[in-house]
Amino acid sequence: MTDNPYRTKTPRPFGAKMAPNDPSDGERWNLRLYVAGETPKCVQAFQHLKQICEEHLQGRYSIEVIDLLKNPTLAQGDQIIAIPTLVRQLPPPVKKIIGDLTNTERVVVGLNLIPIKPELRRAK
Amino acid sequence: MAVIQAVGPAPVEKVPSGIAGFDQITGGGLPAGRSTLVCGAPGSGKTIFAVEFLVRGAQLGEKGVFITFEESVADLTRNVASLGFNLAQLQEQKLLAVDYVHLDPAEIEEAGGYSLDGLFVRLAHSLDAVGAKRVAIDTLEVLFSTLKDDAVVRAETQRLFRFLKDRGVTAVVTAEAGAGALTRQGLEEYVSDCVVWLGQSVSDQLATRFLRIVKYRGSSHGTNEYPFLIDDSGFSVVPASSLQLDYQVSEERISSGVPSLDGMLGGNGFFRTSTILVSGSAGSGKSILAAHLANATCQRGERCVLFAFEESPAQIVRNMRSVGLDLRKWQERGLLELHATRPSLYGLEMHLVSMHKAISEFKPTTVILDPISSFTSAGKVPQIKAMLVRLFDWLKTQQITGLVTCLTTAANRDEVDLGISSLIDTWIEVRELEIAGERNRALYLLKSRGMSHSNQIRELVISDTGISLADVFTGEGGVLIGSAKLAELNRRTREEQERAADVARSERLLEIKRENLEAQISALRAEYAAHAEEVQRRLRSSRESADAARSDRDMLSRLRTDFGNRFGSNGGGQ
Question: Could you give the C-alpha distances from B121 to A84, B150, B360, in angstroms and in order?
Fold first, then answer.
């Protein structure tokens, strides 16, 4: 398992550490990343996602990686056509972001992570 | 002359689409293992084409996968149920897999590069799950409107077609019509094997759906716009007339149902598979003549379809009963089908398609159209002619005998008749003759190809036992018919009687003369006999007196001798 590029660090216990000024206090983020094998785009997407989550959602997120090559039937449920696709399952509503997530700003906007950054909210 | 033979790879392998008529115009169906692009405006029938391709495929033993971007599985199943397709059942039987790819642009954000591997994975999974040989994708363009990265979508589309080709599945991909181009997204660039266009034309407020093969690589195909129909059993396309005149001909003769008419047609009736036109003015008995043929067909145990454009089936049955033709009996036995439609219900092409379909389903040996002249309310004469050419042509290839009636008036007589006369094998004209204050029907054969036929005009008599043909009289006043014929008949009878009386009288006179003469002869004979007797008697008496005189003389001479002997010489010696 050491060479698994999708290996997630053991998430911190729920609610163990939170940003002090986080308004969405206690909100749990369930993210699902659909990949097809270990293509550069997929691996890249996973790394970017982890990075963003660590930055914005430290300790309050879980990432489930689904490899469609292993479980092709799972593609239908979340209506996946593009790879990689990130699905925000919680909190609702469901959001989908496709691509290797190199455009961090887009991911942040797409996942509605912006409101939790007070300075950005003020800037709005 | 040497025949140059084309040397090259084998022609494109085709799989029957199963769509009625489509496989004829493409010479076998869709290119096997290739993709076919079906494009057209909204509502042109693309989805139905795609679904029918899969449903027919399942019936032909080829399993299929349907990828729908537009309708949910439930909606699609419900929508095509009206065409008689049971998608749920096919899915249960594992003959069909339907995958609804729902894309909501509001839900999707793009952040970085991506591929459409998800779609490929799903497609590959569905293909493997049922072991599909056919795929339909309806419509791929949703990808273009949902995903922002056009370059990726284009590259992936290209990859998709390559993927389908590599998998060796026969695919139908639908696409929306674009302004000034076949498809909005130029998908025709990616599909190079076969492109089918579905369209709709409206003329004189009558809409006609049509289909055109824009391209078919490696195969000859019809280039026309072929009308098609979507009804409760799906698609049906009508092939336009075949280019060759190479249908088989039949030597078999079939009865027209009117024995005396058969007699005029060389004694045996029509040729099977011939095309017969019955033209005539209103009320001349064309429909009844047609019904006779229908009746005769059913009597042989063959099937007949009658397309009526002026009367309802119930009306036809009732009217024909009044001339002794029981058509209901044949309807009940499933030998006769009556279709009644208003000519103006839809365009000519649609009439052709619907007739085509009815004929294909019922498989009759005789088809009757009554009358074709009413098509003038659905189209112009050249179009009617074009439609009839195709219909007749097709009937001949199907070995079906066709009879059409045509109402002729002084105005359209030349138009309609001449338009199709060259297609007609046997042309019967029924004309009303107005003589001596009444109208009567006269029937004659304008032509009848390939058989000796009567050149006589016959009187068509309609009675409660049907049609019969009677000889007409020709006199100084031309053709005599109806009561004029009766009068002539009476006059002739009278003349005949008079002549007979004359002869009898003369014969009697002659007899009397002969008797007189014979009496005279016998009187003369009696007179002669009396005279002859008298003469005989006289002769006899004179002969007797002569004999008497001679014997007297002899006696005297003897006496004289004796006397001399005694008195003369001395004794004479004895």
Answer: 12, 21, 42
Q: What are the sequence ranges of the domains in chain B? A: 14-237, 253-471, 481-529
Asked whether the beta carbons of B289 and B467 are under 8 A apart, the reply is: yes
Q: Which of B275-289, B424-438, B532-546 has the lowest mean pLDDT?
A: B424-438
Mean pLDDT of B356-366: 89
Same fold, B14-237 and B253-471: yes
Question: Is B118's CB within 8 Å of A83's CB?
Answer: yes
- Cβ of A80 within 8 Å of Cβ of B110? The answer is no
Alpha-carbon distance of B275 to B403, in angstroms, equals 6
Specify whether the CB–CB gap between B178 and B184 falls below 8 A.
yes
User: Please, are residues B292 and B257 in contact by the beta-carbon 8 Å criterion?
Assistant: yes
Fold that domain B14-237 belongs to in CATH: Rossmann fold (3.40.50)
> What is the chain B residue with the closest CA to A112?
B109
CATH superfamily of B253-471: P-loop containing nucleotide triphosphate hydrolases (3.40.50.300)
For chain B positions 98-117, those within 8 Å of chain A (CB to CB) are 99, 101-103, 107-117
The model's pTM = 0.66
Q: Is the ipTM of this complex over 0.95?
A: no
| Probe site for chain B from A98, A102, A103 (most B CB atoms < 10 A) | A98
Whether residues B115 and A41 touch (CB distance < 8 A) is answered with yes
Would the CB atoms of A102 and B110 count as touching at under 8 Å? no
How would you classify the pairing of strands B275-280 and B426-435? Answer: parallel
Q: 3.30.2320.30, 1.25.40.10, 3.30.70.1530, 3.40.30.10: which CATH number matches A29-123?
A: 3.40.30.10
In this structure, are residues B444 and B457 in contact, taking their beta carbons and an 8 Å threshold?
Answer: yes
Amino acid letter, A33: L
> What pLDDT is attached to residue A15?
41
In the structure encoding, which two tokens stand for residue B506, read together? Answer: 């003369």
Residue B119 sits at the chain A interface (C-beta within 8 Å): yes
Distance between B14 CA and the closest CA of chain A, angstroms: 31
Domain boundaries, chain A: 29-123
Structure tokens at B397: 């290839």
Q: Are B114 and A102 a contacting pair at CB < 8 A?
A: no
Tell me whether the omega of the peptide bond preceding residue A84 falls within 30 degrees of 0, making it cis: yes
- Out of B25-29, B236-240, B312-316, pick the least confident: B236-240
Answer yes or no: is pLDDT of B8 > 80. no
CB-closest option in A75, A82, A96 to B115? A82
B72: alpha, beta or left? (left if phi > 0; alpha if psi -120 to 50) = beta
> Between the CA of residue B294 and those of A2, B82, B298, B338, B500, what are the distances in Å?
85, 33, 6, 10, 48
The amino acid at B150: D
Tokens (6 digits) for A3: 């060479």
Burial of B362 (0-12, 13-18, 19+ CB in 10 A): middle
Question: What average pLDDT does the structure give for chain B?
Answer: 84
The answer to whether B124 faces chain A, any CB pair under 8 Å, is yes
- Helix runs in chain A, H state only: 40-56, 74-77, 104-110, 118-123
Q: pLDDT for A57-76, tens place per residue?
A: 877 888 889 898 888 888 88
